[in-house]
Amino acid sequence: MTERIDWRDLRERRMAEPGADEAYEAARIAFELGQTVRELRERNGWSQSQLARAAGMTQPAVARFEAGGTVPTLVVLERLARALHMRLDVRFSPAADAA
């Protein structure tokens, strides 16, 4: 018989693999950026298509971005910021666990 693995065990195994922490962090950042863009778009009362036109993108690209499905380049972030009448601010901050 095959051994059954529950979700916690599977996650623990996957997170122990080389590079898993970095991939997880990249996914978190992509998701948070997507949520922020969606909130700004909705605050402007725009559809994804309207934002896409303003940013020189396609609607599916905006949808993927908002869903956290892509790790954006600085060029894409700058396009979105400009379209949303925002300034892109990229900076380094101390890590929460830094002593």
UniProtKB/TrEMBL annotation:
One of its GO terms (molecular function) is DNA binding. InterPro entries: Cro/C1-type_HTH (IPR001387), Lambda_DNA-bd_dom_sf (IPR010982), Rad_response_metalloprotease (IPR052345). Residues 37-91 form the HTH cro/C1-type domain. Transmembrane segments: none annotated. Coiled coil: none annotated. Pfam families: HTH_31. This is Helix-turn-helix domain-containing protein.
